[in-house]
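Quarterly update, task 2.4: 2-aminohexanedioic acid-bound model.
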Amino acid sequence: MTNTAILNQQDSTPVYGNFINGEWAAATSGGTFENRNPARASEVIGLFQSSGAGDVDAAVTAADDAARTWGEMSAIARANILYKASEILASRVNDVGRDLSREEGKTLKEGIGETTRAVQILRYYAGEAQQPIGEHYPSTNPMTMLYTLREPLGVVGIITPWNFPIAIPAWKIVPALAFGNTLVFKPATATPLCAVHLVAALQEAGLPQGVLNLVTGSAGAVGDPLIKDERVVAISFTGSNEVGQEIKRVASDRGAKVQLELGGKNPAIVLADADIDHAITQVINGAMMSTGQKCTATSRAIVDRKIASELTERLAQQIGGLKVGDPLTEGITIGPLIDEKAAERVAGEIGRAKSEGVALVTGGERPEALSDGHFVMPALFSDVDPQSRLGQEEMFGPVLGVIPVDDVDEAIAVANQVRYGLSASIFTRDLGRALQFVRQIQAGIVHVNSETAGAEPHVPFGGYKGSSSYSREQGKAAREFYTQMKTVYLDPPPSV
Ligand code: UN1
């Protein structure tokens, strides 16, 4: 990373700047906040700017000033910058992946994997920027050339979560840039270092000043003024339903375009004819990787009653054997929760379900040997009532509930009885049942015989019902959100 992102050191801890109008700079408040390693809370990774309304204003002004030149630049020139950024980030995948694991807590393998995904996103949109931008139509007047264009929106606000600290910023920022928008980017306060890495790669690739502006700080101090600023014509947000709905209300009230990616309560249906070994591995990966902190995580295993007790027993055995600890240590598969509040909340949900009489088969405790980090042992509940809190609410942690059902019809009905609809899986060898599931499941991302999590960058991503706001991210779908359409009637002058 360019050292310019580091403004100075405080007791050998680097102090990272905001990036506004092409410069790494301190916030006007002069204050900073700490970024700590969730596996070892005593380790401070860096200090980041506690920004406020004045910094947001400067960032929006810079983005606004840059909008015209960037928007009118050839898409090919924009693509070249994105491609160069992909090469810069690719050359740093191991270091950035390690920083990702340090600040977010997922394993090193996942951290490097996610950084590689950001590289792929940069490459994909370098290509996508060169795809056709409109359509040519016949007109009632044979002399009229009638066609459409996709043009940039202008200044876009990007608000991202901590759980995919480089992939989600990349999949919002990169298409927005590819299609000619300028940006103000507010990353989650828990994972600002990945944001710095992404912005630095784009800066070094030659992004003109003002096109991408990074402002770190809290939702109240940075997010609020950003969503209220009249010059910010669109907002893309991934995070909780509560915050998303508030953003939608405020931003759409003033006429901005809003895109939301929210929670999930994703089911994995396991039918009696499934390949059970495969289903167990996939369900556990879906539920427990990244410590269950994915909006696509599997949180309900909806299982044919005939195999429910065997499956529960085998799930418990394997979940109980997962290695929990520092995600940078070889052999560890489950890292910490993002912070102490999250660990207490998840442990609290587990305690509450237990006290309501739900059977906890394994896990759920806070490991004493790892008390400096925010750890909760991966938990499995059996015989979960689909209408209970555990069956309905997103846990955002390493918690899986088994729900026994009689047949595929009941499985799909139960799967659909939640307010969310992000991703869903079925495990079966029966093509007819698989296709019935694909048809009837209310989810934006549907898997047959694979886990509920995971998203390839070149296809649309988003959910049904309370999981999204109907628009889709990534792939060609991103063009829908980050552009507006112009219809052109081009007639020759009458003399021709
Ligand atoms: C994935 O499953 O790899 O915040 C991506 C989330 C989702 C992204 C999931 N928006 O967890």
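Highlight for this quarter: The chain has a mean pLDDT of 97.
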